[in-house]
């Protein structure tokens, strides 16, 4: 098969981890007889520096006309440390999600057998953890009206959800639960927030269409606790944008490193694949960032966007082999020999 893939490397460690995912994807294409044409495009601080805009129209055209998008990370300290900057890299990410209609962010959290002792959590607590967050990605407080009043002394961010937005995300959650252990947890703050009450009532009304799915409703603060206490008690969790952002970073600790967790952002017409981590600016250019989250995002791309599970499995097998052999970056080396970003990528590509 032939694929056009938009390639948005972004900032910080983005280009380094993307290079490894490209190398591994090309090895997969070679082994299985596919042809990939990569379509590089600017985003984030790199795009602001080049053209003054973090998600330029040209980048959108490339994404919208490709079969999938592979994304690294965006973000730069010069903007993080300047809250008043009028244009920010993160605005590009949000604009991209909105314009491409990427409303469902699939963020799995799972453990690797060879890494059980790398998590700060006790092995018996995390063993067997295999859960998936479905994070709503184009609504909520991220996209509500925001601003200042009282001469800048008061700031506000509105959180808004429509029933239709909740329904389309919850539908994906129910469908995903049906393919797994038929357990769905709706994470909200319905004891306080009106938007959460809309979430809860909408999901409750959908239960009758999926009688086999056992649905639980839990408050986000309690989930934050149970997630590290009994992570393997969860399966599919659906939640709104900000709660999903926070809980998935927390959950990444279960696997052993933030540098391991991939994601897929699904829209009606196109899907985008990206690690859940950011641009990790302190590691830029040092060849120390873990490329596995991005490489596993490429595995999700083969599996979900192209419906090629064998190709995805080839990548997952190579990652498992590298972890078992200790071919890992410093975040997982635990005092043992640490390999470089590029060396880990070379190993993975050679083991496809
Ligand atoms: N999707 C995205 O592009 C995205 C996501 C989160 C943050 N950001 C941006 O990234 C910048 C830095 O944010 P941050 O420091 O809060 O989050 P971050 O995810 O970049 O880094 C947080 C910590 O996670 C670890 N980490 C992250 N990626 C790793 C990797 N590949 N290998 C090993 N360890 C890794 C490091 O310990 C790092 O200090 C900010 O500008 C932020 O806005 C972008
Ligand atoms: C950089 C930021 C806008 C983004 C988010 O909050 O969605 C990031 O944290 C993520 O998880 O992809
Ligand atoms: Mg985040």
The first-level CATH class name of the largest domain: Alpha Beta
The overall average pLDDT, rounded, is 97
If you consult CATH, what is the topology of the largest domain?
A: Isopropylmalate Dehydrogenase
- What structural class results from the helix and strand content? alpha/beta
What shape does the CA trace take? globular
The share of residues in helices is 40-55%
Q: Ligands in the structure?
A: nicotinamide-adenine-dinucleotide, 3-isopropylmalic acid, magnesium ion
Q: Major sheet, described briefly?
A: 10 strands, mixed
Contiguous low-pLDDT stretches (5 residues minimum) are none
CATH fourth-tier homologous superfamily of the largest domain: Isopropylmalate Dehydrogenase
Oligomer: single chain
Strand content of the residues, in percent? Answer: 15-25%
Question: How would you describe the overall organization of this protein?
Answer:
It is a single chain. The protein has 352 residues and is of the alpha/beta class. It folds into two domains: 201 residues, Isopropylmalate Dehydrogenase (3-Layer(aba) Sandwich), CATH 3.40.718.10; 136 residues, Isopropylmalate Dehydrogenase. The chain contains 14 helices and twelve strands. The strands form two sheets. Strands 2-1-3-12-11-4-5-10-8-9 form a ten-stranded mixed sheet, with helices on both faces. Strand 1, helix 1 and strand 2 form a beta-alpha-beta unit. Helix 1 crosses helix 11, helix 7 packs across helix 8 and helix 11 runs antiparallel to helix 12. The radius of gyration is 20 Å and the shape is globular. The mean pLDDT is 97. Its cofactor is Mg(2+); Mn(2+). Homodimer.
